[in-house]
Design a protein that fits this description.
CATH architecture of the largest domain: Beta Barrel
Structural class: alpha+beta
Number of helices: 4
Strand order of the largest sheet: 4-5-6-9-8-7
Helix content: 25-40%
CATH topology of the largest domain: Thrombin, subunit H
Radius of gyration: 18 Å
Order of helices and strands: EEHHHEEEEEEEH
Strand content: 25-35%
Distance between the termini: 46 Å
Largest sheet: 6 strands, antiparallel, barrel
Number of domains: 2
Number of strands: 9
Shape: globular
Low-confidence stretches: none
Mean pLDDT: 82
CATH class of the largest domain: Mainly Beta
Amino acid sequence: MPANDEKQCGLAGCKEPTAALLEGRSLCREHFVSVCQARLEGYAQLQSERRLSEMEADSVWRFIQECVRQADRIEMSAKVLKDEERSNLIDLLFAGAALGCHLRRSPQRAASIRIRVQSKGSTKQWEEETETRLISRHGALVGFQHPVQIGESLRVVRMENGREAQARVAWYRRKRRGQSEAGLEFTDCENFWEVDWDALET
């Protein structure tokens, strides 16, 4: 729970307890979802009209990451969560991920490519063999057994040719059963998948 989870929602007239901190503002679950949805819808409209500058897009991307991080934490940690509330949080996760993909202006394609992922964090080191579900110019959607954290640095190795790249976790969706999913974003490689992305964009 957030550090100030004993406080009330910061919106005027709301007496519900704080469930999340968004840009320094305390929000209950209902208002967290409504505020995030409204902002994401507004950003999506601006993006579709090509009215976002590069600097603005970077700011939007940081907002998306914060929304996803807080929504995931609420969805996994809440002791009592109605089905509708859980559904709204999951919808928020996917809406944020979808908008983030558009902001990067890169096409995606379904592809199952075997990879080995290595974490060399200071607390615990691990590696896992898995496969991609979607790939793009800038990263991939990957299934995981190990838990990861947004912002975590990972080393990705393609099993068929040994090519390596450094990546960071852009977003993470934990599942109660089976593999979790994470969006990886490369930080040191332009065309890790060796795909003609320019041809796909035309």
